[in-house]
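User: My instructor asked us to take a sequence, write out its structure as tokens, and then describe one feature of it. I'm not sure where to start. Here is the sequence I was given:
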Amino acid sequence: MSTAWLVVLVVGAATVLLKAAGPVFVGARALPPRALALVEVLAPAMLAALVVTQTVGGDQELVLDERVAGLAVAAAAILLRAPLLAVMTLAAASAALLRLVL
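Assistant: Let's start with the prediction itself. The structure tokens for your sequence are:
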């Protein structure tokens, strides 16, 4: 077995164990209000961090290209309360059109 496959298996097993730890340790008990508040904001914060790093992250530098314009269009569409499918379509189309033109 190669080192890469060993890493994949170890990370996969660790993921399963971490996901199972919550239900096993918490069970049917309710979380304290402070912990519940943290859990509620954790997923959106992680998603925002992933979007930003994938949009402007480069090889040890910031990359400002068509993806930033797509993100700006998506933000504007969200502010206008557009449906999610429309937000994604508008963002992708604007980035693609700018990439085509530039």
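For the description part of your assignment, you could build on this observation: Helices lie at 3-26, 33-56, 66-79, 84-101. Try explaining in your own words what that tells you about the chain.
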